[in-house]
Amino acid sequence: MRILLIEDELELASAIENALDKRNIAVDCVSTLSQARYAIRECQYKVVLLDRGLPDGDGLTVIPDLRAAVPGIPVIVLTAASEITARVEGLDAGADDYLAKPFSMDELTARLRALARRSPIIQTHKITVGELEIDLVSLTATIHGEPLDLPRRELLALQALVESAGKTVRRDQLVARVYGLNEDIHSNALDTHISRLRSKLALRGAGVEIRPVRGIGYLLSTTE
């Protein structure tokens, strides 16, 4: 899954991004409230991690904007304040969870996945198409019940296509899901990832195929 991290401490943001990347969770990081308002409209996120002390205001003030863009999106507040009053303020402002700094990356990962499983924006946690099954929370895939080992970007592309199986996914939508906001990509990078993904699915007998839709994007469907 892909999450939005709103954090202005660059060292902490980098540590979170690196730790979650190893756990198959993609992270887009922004450092201000204005950047957060832009990001939530441009990409699809499963959870938001939100710091309170941001350069342009209290992070809690952006929660209504996040929910207006994506109704029901889970929000975890990250803060150095551990007092009960601060936690109550966060929860009263609409946050779903609260994590005081410093924190364990394992605990953060567990909280992210727990919130994603309960999130109303994820209608189902597992989707099966043909012989392929993908877990949308843990971002893992299996074929015939056996694990399909894929790099994270290929998994993100597969997730986006499986969620819209039988429908064309626009190229710009795939780019946003796979690369997020913080990466510059070559024009053919997405095509390279899709090509590798198609080969791996065919080799394993997944019972699905990914077809290009000229001038629009890609479509995943079951094979005849």
Indicate the topology.
Blueprint: E1 2-6, H1 10-21, E2 26-30, H2 33-42, E3 47-51, E4 53-54, E5 57-58, H3 63-69, E6 75-79, H4 84-92, E7 97-100, H5 105-118, E8 126-129, E9 132-135, E10 140-143, E11 146-148, H6 152-163, E12 168-170, H7 171-179, H8 189-203, E13 208-213, E14 217-222
Parallel strand pairs: 1-2, 1-3, 3-6, 6-7
Antiparallel strand pairs: 4-5, 8-9, 9-10, 10-11, 12-14, 13-14
Helix pairs in contact: 6-7, 6-8
Protein described:
It comes from Paraburkholderia acidicola. Residues 124-222 form the OmpR/PhoB-type domain. This is DNA-binding response regulator. The protein has 224 residues and is an alpha/beta fold. Helices cover 39% and strands 26% of the residues. It contains 8 helices and 14 strands. The chain has helices at 10-21, 33-42, 63-69, 84-92, 105-118, 152-163, 171-179, 189-203; strands at residues 2-6, 26-30, 47-51, 53-54, 57-58, 75-79, 97-100, 126-129, 132-135, 140-143, 146-148, 168-170, 208-213, 217-222. The strands form 4 sheets. It has a 5-stranded parallel β-sheet with strand order 2-1-3-6-7, sandwiched between helices. Strands 8-9-10-11 form a 4-stranded antiparallel β-sheet, with helices on one face. Strands 12-14-13 form a 3-stranded antiparallel β-sheet.
